[in-house]
Amino acid sequence: MKNFMILTESINYIEQNLCESITRQEIADHCYVSLSMLEKLFNYALNMSIKTYITRRRMTLAAYDILIEGMSVTEVAMKLQFNSVEVFTRAFKRIWMINPSDFTSRWKFTGIFPKINYEYKKGEELYMARKKVDMSEAYDYLKDRKDSYVLCFDIQQLMKFNHISEKLGDLAILEEASRIDHAATDDMLTMRIGGDEFALLTGLYEEDKAKAIMNDILKQNGNSISFEGKKYPLSLWCGITKIPQSLRYSGLLNDLHQTIIRVKK
Predict the structure, then answer these.
(1) What is 2-105's CATH superfamily?
(2) Which of 59, 71, 220, 233 could be joined to 65 by an S-S link, Cβ 3.0–4.6 Å?
(3) Which has the closest alpha carbon to 27: 46, 45, 42, 43?
């Protein structure tokens, strides 16, 4: 329980200071633990370092500011406390595989790495505590589109990509998001709901129209991504469900995950 509280507090502190020049030691000091202990918690629970988590969250915020807020690359770099636009551009490209100046011409989706919220049950080990994404920004969309269809996606055999390289796994996830994003219209909402799980909130009430979008995306199954001079075929699973009339985040997230599990079976 103590480790769960430390991890939760550190994540909240990072969120409150995404636009500040915080150090890993400052985060550890805020949580009254050693830096080595906090790094071990992040690697154990999130399978990444503190620095990697901060960078991914900042580049997610950067994409939002560029696409949704209409901020310039220079303005975003300054907001996130980067020393130069060049340094910011390199950090952005490592996550999005594209220069920030070209982002608006390629993407409608910005939430590649949403904030993680942990749900803890008494007696669970930290690594078993269920990770949930923050869906609060989607509340109005969900509320106004109850009973509309949701497409739930997952990568087939992601472990094989990660076994070769975690960078290849990240590239596969980005390609998954790209395929969904390009099929979505401007009035749809794409959300990352798990490690390699995405939900496309279509806003559609006709099942055949929702399935037509699903089929367009799945037609790309087997198309390859390139990594270090080699090509790797990428395929997705997809299930379909609805936004329930009784809207509860925990219940909805569980339903989306179960939809993916069913289609994989």
Answers:
(1) Homeodomain-like (1.10.10.60)
(2) 71
(3) 42
Q: Where are the domains of the chain?
A: 2-105, 135-264
Q: Which residues pair with 238 in a beta bridge?
A: 153
Q: Which amino acid is at 84?
A: S
Domains 2-105 and 135-264 share a fold: no
Instruction: Give the contacts of 199 (CB within 8 A, at least 6 positions apart).
Output: 150, 151, 152, 153, 190, 191, 193, 256
C-beta neighbour count of 27 within 10 angstroms: 21
DSSP structure class, residue 157:
T
**Per-residue pLDDT tens over the stretch 86-122:** 999 999 999 999 999 999 999 999 999 988 876 655 6
Q: Which value, to the nearest 10 degrees, does the dihedral of the CA atoms of residues 110, 193, 175, 150 take? A: -90
Alpha-carbon distances of 107 from 104, 202, 234, rounded to whole Å: 6, 17, 20
pTM: predicted TM-score of the whole model, two decimal places: 0.87
Nearest Cα residue to 45 out of 108, 128, 111: 128
Buried b (16+ CB within 10 A) or exposed e, 144-166: ebeebbbbbbbbeebeebbeeee
H or E, element range at 110: none
- The per-residue pLDDT for range 189-238, each reduced to its tens digit, is 999 988 889 999 999 999 999 999 999 999 999 999 999 999 999 999 99
135-264: CATH topology: Alpha-Beta Plaits (3.30.70)
